[in-house]
Every structure is written in C-alpha cells, then in structure tokens.
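EI: anyone free to look at a 62-residue chain?
SC: sure, send it
EI:
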Amino acid sequence: MKYYVNDSCIGCGMCCGICPNAFHLNDNGFAEAIDENIDETDLQDAENAKLSCPVGAIEERK
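SC: here you go
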C-alpha cells in the first residue's frame, strides 16, 4: 500500500507522529509520504494517520 499527501496539508505533523515510518515533514514544513510500499507492520498506523488527518490530506495510491 502506498499513500499520497495532497495540497490541502497544513503541516500539523499529526501523521508523522502517528506513523513516522510512512510520513515525514519536508523542508517546507508539509507532510510527505514515503515513495514506496508501506511495510506490513506499519499499515494500521498509516491508516490511523490517514483517518486522523484534520484536513483529509492523506490519500491511498492505487
């Protein structure tokens, strides 16, 4: 499973706190998803990060 952070990100960092193995803040202070499949052990945390995003900026990549 891969994730994508869209342009509505406000840089709150919640996703990074919930699943640092899948998300990080870039140099501009906005979240980015790692550009590879999420490890099986991190899938639940990544989904929790997606659901917890206050602006719904995290999407699944198909």
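EI: Residues 1-35 form one domain.
SC: 👍
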